Amino acid sequence: xxxxxxxxxxxxxxxxxxxxxxxxxxxxxxxxxxxxxxxxxxxxxxxxxxxxxxxxxxxxxxxxxxxxxxxxxxxxxxxxxxxxxxxxxxxxxxxxxxxxxxxxxxxxxxxxxxxxxxxxxxxxxxxxxxxxxxxxxxxxxxxxxxxxxxxxxxxxxxxxxxxxxxxxxxxxxxxxxxxxxxxxxxxxxxxxxxxxxxxxxxxxxxxxxxxxxxxxxxxxxxxxxxxxxxxxxxxxxxxxxxxxxxxxxxxxxxxxxxxxxxxxxxxxxxxxxxxxxxxxxxxxxxxxxxxxxxxxxxxxxxxxxxxxxxxxxxxxxxxxxxxxxxxxxxxxxxxxxxxxxxxxxxxxxxxxxxxxxxxxxxxxxxxxxxxxxxxxxxxxxxxxxxxxxxxxxxxxxxxxxxxxxxxxxxxxxxxxxxxxxxxxxxxxxxxxxxxxxxxxxxxxxxx
Length: 447
Prior knowledge:
The chain is mostly helical. The protein is built from 22 helices and five strands.
């Protein structure tokens, strides 16, 4: 294909990839993985309110996330370096007159993914053929799993972009390789597994961890803002147990990502892969092994696997399709892969608890802007995020202690359980509907 038409076709794929990611893009942050999305978006929202402080990111949750009994009344959020939030903030400053912060957050991930698709095309063409590159790019853009998890407000899509940029920059520029690779590890340290093809330049590969190491040293000045994370390795002892194989290779890779029928070209691709692709695949497998519990617990953890999975499926499909009949069989497999994977992922778009959204809107209108709120939702910060206030997503202490020790002023609930009913009897109810109640934590004057 003439190079000019190659780029036109690539542009068409990117446009279609953008369009499919607009599905339910205006959803509130109350769909699947809303907890993690709310935490990420809250950092940017607090920058919008209070100014950018890259070295001390803050979110809304004051509770103990460290697992060490350390409450976090300053709301420190020391996880990944907030590069995603910087881009989110910059785009929102340009688009705030037209779009909400949440919509711009989703667009941030989508734009990163479109860049990833272009980078993956050139990387696949370099290490294989143009045909493999085209099909790899199409699979990457239109796998239903990847469509959903690249329009969420998470740093993971940006990490994938930076990994691909680092891989593409090698070997032409060691400096660019180091810059993109270091940023990828800063955004998500798990990126190091997917940079394994850089290992032949050992000292460059090892130096990618230096900026992250400095960030971790800085973070430990405020341990209350560092979420417990060692459990992600093998906290429940599941590694190599039958459930580990079932969840990761059956439910996630087999069903959710490859829709069962994609397993056939994927396995064929493994046998056709050269040493470069196999090194990348080995890094992906090592990642699944090391972060055994994290990958079981969180389905978005498999997002960085999608580029190499797309390459292997494309390799297998093109190798098999040597006759018209075989091409028809492979087209049937790919279509079923996409269809069945969509059937598995479509529920993630649903907002399963609209009352938290409506209660949050009511609280945002009624309460002072700097109010500290208790919005219990089993520790999930999605409800607290909807109130547009900072505070607590659970009753980790009695309500009186949260009020007296941490200044909690209001309680918002969508459940009329015994706990809520007791608080309603003791304190002042400001608003009440069948769906929610908003309570000021001040005892009313009784006759």
